[in-house]
Design brief:
Elements lengths: L9 H27 L2 H16 L10 H25 L3 H7 L3 H12 L6 H17 L3 H4 L2 H21 L7 H23 L1 H6 L5 H28 L2 H4 L5 H14 L5 H28 L1
Helix pairs in contact: 1-3, 1-11, 1-13, 2-3, 2-9, 2-11, 3-8, 3-9, 4-13, 5-6, 5-8, 6-14
Length: 296
């Protein structure tokens, strides 16, 4: 077993930088994909690519299959179904990137409700700041039209939070094995849903231009496999408390990239809401990581 090293080296920082860059750019890829491909079909194609890349790692993991199946259903099926719909109905996806930060406080609240974890004042304050930051967006006239997308993103964040609790019991399972099951169950769930609600989209798959498939492939390989694989690699080498703060750059990059690429406005209220939400997420992330290390 690899011994954990508290200090991050130059290679670790480079890997973390690549991970944040891929996650930050992914918002562009997902939005472009659902602009050119019906959202459920795009989600199906993404999971099909993940499955093809990770298929050789698909295997039964004794004692972990209940968690693996639940993780695959939630992450591969439900999450991508909802998040692609949110992208399809939104124009200013930067607002969705801010709303997407609700996943961290939602995970904290689910841990309290389901796992009976105890949290103290700092993490309570972090959760409150995260919710306040997203709530500020509602008062921005430029973002008001994005309420359906923000609501769907909040639902997707709740699904992600639930899957993150399940993932706690998957430590030691190779990340490519995990995502082979994510891809398989994602395809199993999304294929019939897309066939029912987007039959024209399914029929159009053989005729899709390469650039449209390229956006989907970037999300599948860049964000899911390389991005999450990098996170797993870092966690195998360093304590959680050293690694989790490194992910905080991703939402900032998402908002900036979305604004630059789609020429959507970054209003003062969006900036304020983003700063407040990210500060809350940072508090929850760092304090939770330290608590986890103290228990280890």
């Amino acid at each position: 077993m690899t011994q954990l090293q508290p200090r991050l080296g130059a290679r670790d920082i480079a890997v973390a930088g690549l991970m944040n860059l891929l996650w930050g750019m992914n918002i562009i890829a997902v939005k472009m994909a659902v602009n050119e491909i019906p959202p459920l079909t795009a989600a199906l194609l993404r999971q099909a690519i993940v499955l093809m890349v990770c298929l050789s790692w698909l295997r039964i993991v004794p004692g972990r299959m209940r968690e693996l199946l639940a993780f695959g259903v939630m992450t591969g099926g439900l999450y991508f179904l909802v998040i692609n719909l949110s992208m399809a109905v939104a124009t200013n996806v930067g607002a969705l990137a801010i709303a997407g930060q609700l996943g961290v406080p939602f995970a904290m609240l689910l841990a309290v409700v389901i796992l009976k974890e105890r949290i103290h004042k700092y993490r309570i304050a972090g959760v409150a700041m995260s919710l306040l930051g997203v709530g500020i967006l509602v008062f921005d006239p430029e973002v008001a039209r994005e309420i359906p997308g923000i609501a769907l993103t909040a639902l997707a964040s709740l699904i992600w939070a639930g899957s993150s609790l399940i993932q706690r019991n998957l430590r030691g399972v190779p990340v490519l094995s995990m995502y082979a099951w994510v891809g398989l169950l994602g395809v199993a769930i999304l294929a019939p849903v897309a066939l029912v609600f987007e039959p024209e989209g399914i029929r159009s798959i053989p005729h899709l231009p390469l650039h449209s498939l390229g956006w989907v492939a970037f999300s599948a390989i860049g964000s899911t496999i390389i991005g999450h694989g990098s996170m797993s690699w870092l966690l195998q080498r360093h304590p959680v408390a050293s690694v989790t703060p490194l992910t905080l750059a991703a939402p900032v990059l998402s908002v900036v990239f979305a604004s630059l690429f789609f020429h959507t406005p970054l209003t003062p209220l969006m900036i304020l809401g983003g700063i407040v939400a990210l500060a809350g997420v940072a508090i929850v992330t760092i304090r939770s990581a330290r608590v986890g290390e103290n228990r280890a």
